[in-house]
Specification:
By secondary structure, this protein is an alpha+beta fold. Helix content is about 30%, strand content about 20%. The protein folds into 2 domains: about 10-195, Fructose-1,6-Bisphosphatase, Chain A, domain 1, CATH 3.30.540.10; about 205-339, D-Maltodextrin-Binding Protein, domain 2. The protein binds 2,5-anhydro-1,6-di-O-phosphono-D-mannitol and magnesium ion.
């Protein structure tokens, strides 16, 4: 017999019930977040119709300004999250400073960092994009406005993290520190339903994901590692497959399910890589570790990095445990050679 439906809401509540001390606040916060992503999902799905429906230039047919989708997603997140009474402060990829909770709203005990629409340069080509979020408990005194220090906690302090992928279907994948669970949005009745319980990533994969066009800028250890995966020197060994969408959520989601490694490295032009620690790499690292994988900046565990600013960048090596260990070994050996 088929298992009964498990909605996201029921799942969150049941997870929280296992902790008698829980107040239900985290559940409501995740619930608000899921609502925001449903609104974003609807708008993402309409993106291809913009020209057909005559939404040209800056105004739509109603004379309203047409917002860029990433700004729409950013504003939707804020609107859905700033009045719930669960947050004391937020930070978004789309805003330089921290985002305060309005004075007239109850101030809560959690901190939310998010990338409202990652990979948004892919929208016009109908390629999967995503929302990423990371939740911490505040460290500043309760009842006061949240601070930048609340936002600058190490990844190990995350209470929950997740992403929503807007792909052939919309899926939310999240962890609250007890495994990773995936929910698929049923577009007919607007509910996220549990479709991927307790996701575990393979210990070793067969896929590598990196922007190989940047090869000439890479450090020698990384060049050697990628050649190693291509099995250039061993005609009898099967090479890894290269898969790179250029949309972090989609690349990591695929590798999480199939196994493999995603890399956005430092190189001679960008010593800190491209991707952001606080709302891209840390939440992904929490999820991947919870699924049995590994994530580092090539030197130290991603979740142990001490953040210094909300928009700081970091190199990232993330995915199946043995694959990440192998690349770390290549990087380390090269460092010893050049030392
Ligand atoms: P964005 O936050 O401006 O969308 O950029 C982040 C995206 C990631 O989703 C993706 O992994 C990366 O940029 C791709 O970068 P590149 O085009 O340099 O390979
Ligand atoms: Mg981004």
């Amino acid at each position: 017999m088929k298992q009964s439906f498990m909605t996201l809401q029921r799942h969150i509540i049941e997870e929280e019930r296992r902790h008698p001390e829980a107040t239900g606040e985290l559940s409501s916060l995740l619930w608000d977040l899921s609502l925001a992503t449903k609104v974003i999902s609807l708008e993402v799905n309409k993106a291809g119709l913009v020209d057909i429906l005559g939404f040209t230039g800056d105004e739509n047919i109603h004379g309203e300004k047409v917002k860029k989708l990433d700004m729409f997603a950013h504003e939707t997140m804020i609107k859905a999250m700033d009045h719930g009474g669960h947050l004391c402060v937020m930070a978004s990829e789309e805003e330089d400073d921290i985002i305060h909770i309005p004075k007239n709203k109850r101030i809560g005990k959690y901190v939310l960092l998010f990338d409202p629409l990652d990979g948004s340069s892919n929208i016009d080509a109908n390629v999967s994009i995503g929302t990423i979020f990371s939740i911490y408990r505040r460290i500043s005194p309760n009842g006061t406005p949240g601070t930048v220090e609340d936002c600058l906690q190490k990844g190990v302090e995350q209470v929950a993290a997740g992403y929503v992928i807007y792909g052939s279907s919309t899926m939310m994948v999240y962890t609250a520190g007890e495994g990773v669970h995936g929910f698929t949005l049923d577009p007919a009745f607007g509910e996220y339903l549990l479709s991927h319980p307790n996701i575990k990533t393979p210990k070793r994969g067969k896929i590598y994901s990196i922007n190989e066009g940047n090869y000439k800028y890479w450090h020698p250890g990384l060049k050697k590692y990628i050649k190693f995966l291509q099995k250039d020197e061993d005609p009898n060994e099967k090479p890894y497959s290269a898969r790179y969408i250029g949309s972090m959520v989609a690349d990591i989601h695929r590798n999480l399910l199939y196994g493999g490694i995603f890399i956005y490295p430092e190189d001679i032009r960008h010593p800190n890589g491209k991707l952001r620690l606080m709302y891209e790499c840390n939440p992904m690292a929490f999820i991947v570790e919870q699924a049995g994988g590994r994530a580092s900046d090539g030197k130290i565990r991603m979740l142990e990095k001490q953040p210094t600013s909300i928009h700081q960048r970091t190199p990232v090596y993330i995915g199946s445990e043995e694959d990440v260990l192998t690349v770390e070994k290549f990087l380390h050996e090269e460092e010893n050679v050049t030392a």
